[in-house]
Design a protein that fits this description.
This protein is mainly beta. Helices cover 7% and strands 48% of the residues.
């Protein structure tokens, strides 16, 4: 009898210890399907040149807010489409209180196909991106963008609180590539006011065409959430040339003239040109009074950098001697002003 009583006592104590241990471990474990269901929303874009986003692929994960281990993946290249007035995805995911949830979204989803080999680990999405090949191809009037994906990305990181009833993940998409334009002006005291130059051709050499892109949500710091992100371009490859012939030569007088409309500017892979780089932008042009005397002038890109999500307008003047130095206007692609920088004309 005493033996049975002893066995029973030991069994009860062991069960209590197991329950205590499980209860302790459960603090870091998500509670299954008891949170608010996640939904997506896209912040409206004000830029006229931004395509309407109708779909994207999303990656996401979560971890208990004090954990230092790898987070649990919740979305893995999940397709989200705008249908019947709402953003929809298959299945359902839930917010878990006291957990930090992180998301990376890319649009269009096609940018993650065709050899992109996306990898998502530690809240970072990495994938390969390749521009179309332009070497040996003469484009008419503007860049051929038929095989070019203008990639946009959004991130979100949030610590979800126990009393938080907010379900929507608001995504603010921004461009990952760079936008390039050129704005010449005729400036010569010996030329009449009604004179002009005609620009016949533009050629850019020394372009990298492939890179690995990494997108990571920024750390929250002291905030409960952030939409900031870290964008990295690495492993640049290739040596491409781009040629555009203007079927109707671009007429430029003493007023600065953009060679391309905003919605036709050149979309380029962000890249840095080394100080020893031989990359140039070369113009073929002629003067009104001497149309048969075709001239050439080049802008050196050595030491310059095209950053992600940034629009560059290269301003220069032309006179009887050639192309003259000015500054490049640099803005965020969404038109927020950035400081001007100087550049070199050869």
């Amino acid at each position: 009898m005493r033996y049975n009583l002893f066995q029973t006592s030991v069994l009860i104590i062991c069960c209590m210890l197991c329950l205590a241990s499980c209860s302790s471990d459960a603090v870091n474990e998500p509670e299954a399907d008891k949170g608010v269901e996640m939904s997506f929303d896209v912040v409206p874009e004000s830029r006229a040149i931004t395509p309407i986003i109708s779909e994207f692929s999303v990656y996401g994960d979560m971890k208990f807010h004090t954990d230092v281990t790898d987070p649990i993946v919740t979305f893995n290249k999940t397709s989200v489409v705008y249908r019947d007035g709402a953003w929809r995805y298959d299945g359902a995911q839930y917010w878990y209180p006291k957990h930090e949830h992180s998301f990376v979204a890319v649009s269009p989803s096609s940018a993650l196909e065709s050899g992109a080999s996306p990898q998502y680990s530690g809240t970072k999405l990495s994938f390969a991106y390749m521009m179309p090949t332009y070497s040996g191809k003469e484009m008419q009037d503007c860049q051929d963008k038929s095989d070019l994906a203008d990639i946009l990305a959004a991130t979100h990181r949030r610590l979800y609180k126990e009393d938080d009833n907010s379900s929507a993940i608001s995504l603010r998409f921004d461009h990952l590539l760079a936008l390039i334009n050129f704005a010449p002006r005729l400036d010569d005291k010996t030329i009449k006011d009604d004179d002009y130059i005609q620009i016949h051709k533009l050629e850019i050499s020394g372009l990298k065409k492939k890179a690995t892109i990494a997108v990571t949500p920024a750390q929250r710091q002291e905030n409960l959430q952030t939409d900031d992100r870290v964008i990295e371009f690495a492993g640049h490859e290739g040596n491409d040339n781009l040629t555009i012939i203007f079927s109707d030569s671009k007429v430029v007088n003493n007023q600065r003239t953009n060679l391309f409309a905003n919605n036709d500017a050149l979309i380029m892979l962000p890249q840095a040109f080394e100080a020893s780089s031989e990359a140039t932008v070369r113009f073929t042009y002629s003067f009104k009074e001497d149309p048969d005397n075709v001239r050439h002038g080049s802008i050196s890109l050595a030491g310059q950098e095209w950053k992600t999500g940034t629009a560059y307008t290269y301003n220069f003047t032309v006179d009887k001697i050639g192309l003259n130095l000015e500054t490049a206007t640099i803005k965020e692609w969404d038109s927020k002003d950035k400081p001007d920088i100087s550049w070199t004309v050869e």
